Amino acid sequence: MITGPQCRAARALVEVTRSKLALRSGIDESVIEGFERIIDEPAPDVIATLEKVLQELGAIFIEENGGGKVSAGFPPPSGSACDC
Asked: Which residues contact 37 (CB under 8 A, 6 or more apart)?
């Protein structure tokens, strides 16, 4: 599950405003803001919805070293020589 700062970072990477994410996810913008700013922790199903919508918009969440840390990024361009 993603954290608030990871949500904010992923949103920046896919270039979507908080209001557009709210519209697309059906989650109130104030809930997203509180989550991103680490003011409030929404219910797990709300976080899962945000993660799913961000993935639909192009964000990829990668588990690092099996430790449960998640980072946001983009896939390598198709045909690239990246051996990631």
From this structure: 4
For the chain, count helices (H), then strands (E).
4, 2
Strands 60-64, 69-73: parallel, antiparallel or unpaired by DSSP? antiparallel
pLDDT at 35: 98
- pLDDT mean values, one per 10 residues, the chain (84 residues): 91 93 98 97 97 91 62 57 44
**Pairwise CA distance, residues 1 & 46, whole Å:** 11
What is the pTM assigned to this prediction? Answer: 0.79
Q: Cα separation of 42 and 40, whole Å?
A: 6
What is the residue whose two structure tokens read 């997203």?
Answer: 32
Cβ-contact 82, 49 below 8 angstroms: no
